[in-house]
Specification:
By secondary structure, the chain is an alpha/beta fold. The chain has helices spanning 22-35, 47-51, 60-63, 87-97, 109-121, 146-167, 182-190, 205-217, 254-266, 286-304, 335-344, and strands spanning 9-14, 39-43, 55-58, 102-107, 125-130, 170-175, 195-197, 224-228, 270-274, 310-315, 318-323. The chain has two domains: 9-145 and 284-327, Rossmann fold; 148-279, Phosphofructokinase domain (Rossmann fold, 3-Layer(aba) Sandwich), CATH 3.40.50.460. The protein has a seven-stranded mixed β-sheet with strand order 3-2-1-4-5-10-11, sandwiched between helices. A four-stranded parallel β-sheet has the order 7-8-6-9, with helices on both faces. Bound molecules: 6-O-phosphono-beta-D-fructofuranose (F6P). 6-O-phosphono-beta-D-fructofuranose binds next to loops.
Length: 347
């Protein structure tokens, strides 16, 4: 027998930086929605789509063929409806006009913070799904997109390591991670990087120079130095200037500045790569797709139960609801993983 639900129609949006796995979340949502005969619409470009009543009907026919594609078929943006007066009222009107019973917001800190406020301010049931390669949403051990991104970063480090070994050169690998170093820590450790620099750890560049000198004296002439873009304590030239609608400063650039600094201090050729958007795209891993499908299905189930202002979290090996308000903010790398970085690298 089909589950009975008062839920007739819901909206879905994807906001903030994209990642691999979002389309699989959408597929999970559509799978579950079809079971319960719930109509799903997908807003185009995050909150911008809700503000502009710009959407497309979402169904299994649309999501089935893109489950293993990266990016988001809905498009995304960093639109912040709380930045300008009156926009929340526009959202309230549009949601009413469209006769929505619920909304699923898929994204990172900024998207989920807006989702939580909307849940408080509007007569609308809202459920969030954590999605960011940074893996830094509080209250969940996993965010959609993280697994594929570390898979990408490990593959990139393995690729460049061979070249650096052949040429006996060090290489700085810059990865994303604005306020938290999950990508740097997990991918760096997995790829056996010699040095890993995280925003969560204090960084003394002179100490790095000394440790590299020591490595060179011991004939270890090819070291991988993974640096998260958000590492503090070292002034660097930013590749792009500006801030987004949430006030996030563009950070990329530390890798190249660090390369120049090390080259100068060590008088030895040092290479650098900025992995940038390469780490955000690509075919999602099997684990990612499985997790994403599960997150999507769970969000529909919570809405069916009449729940509101919750996020689907992955904790202790299963998916469970947590208050969305608690998921706002940033979760740093865990003390256990930081200890691994300290113990398994040479700084
Ligand atoms: O939001 C996640 C993230 O991957 C951050 O680590 C990074 O600073 C940011 O996206 C950059 O994305 P964009 O250039 O799209 O703003």
């Amino acid at each position: 027998m089909k589950p009975q639900s008062s839920l007739k129609k819901i909206g879905v949006l994807t906001g903030g930086g994209d990642s691999s796995g979002i389309n699989a979340v959408l597929h999970g949502i559509c799978l579950e929605a079809r079971q319960a005969e719930i109509e799903v619409i997908g807003f185009i470009d995050g909150w911008a789509g809700v503000l502009g009543k710009n959407y497309l009907p979402l169904s299994l026919e649309k999501t089935f063929s893109v489950v293993n594609n990266s990016g988001t078929i809905l498009g995304t943006s960093r639109t912040n409806p709380y930045k300008q007066k009156g926009q929340v009222q526009v959202i309230a009107k549009n949601v009413k006009d469209l006769a929505l019973d619920g909304l699923i917001a898929i994204g990172g800190n900024d998207t989920l913070t807006v989702a939580s406020k909307i849940a408080n301010d509007l007569e609308l049931k809202v459920v969030g799904i954590p999605q960011t390669i940074d893996n830094d949403v509080p209250q969940t051990d996993y965010c959609v997109g993280f697994n594929t991104s570390i898979h990408n970063v490990v593959a990139a480090i393995n690729n460049v390591r061979a070249t650096c070994q052949s040429h006996k050169e060090d290489i700085v690998v810059e990865v994303m991670g604005r306020e938290s170093g999950w990508i740097a820590a997990v991918a760096g450790l997995t790829a056996s990087s010699e040095f890993i620099l995280l925003p969560e750890m204090s960084f003394d560049v002179l100490n790095l120079v000394e440790k590299l000198k020591l490595r060179h004296e011991q004939n270890f002439n090819s070291n991988v130095i993974v640096v998260a873009e958000g590492v503090k304590g070292f002034d660097h030239h930013k590749i792009e200037a500006g801030t987004d609608a949430f006030g996030n400063v563009m950070l990329a650039g530390i890798g190249l500045s660090l390369r120049d600094y090390l080259q100068d201090k060590l008088q030895k050729k040092t290479r650098a790569i900025v992995l940038s958007y390469i780490q955000r795209g690509g075919v999602p891993t099997a684990y990612e797709v499985f997790m994403a499908l599960s997150f999507g299905r769970k969000a529909i189930k919570l809405l069916q139960e009449g729940q509101n202002n919750l996020m689907v979290a992955y904790k202790d090996g299963c998916l469970k609801p947590v208050p969305l308000a608690l998921a706002c903010g940033t979760k740093g790398v865990s003390p256990e993983v930081i200890a691994m970085v300290r113990e398994m690298t040479f700084l």
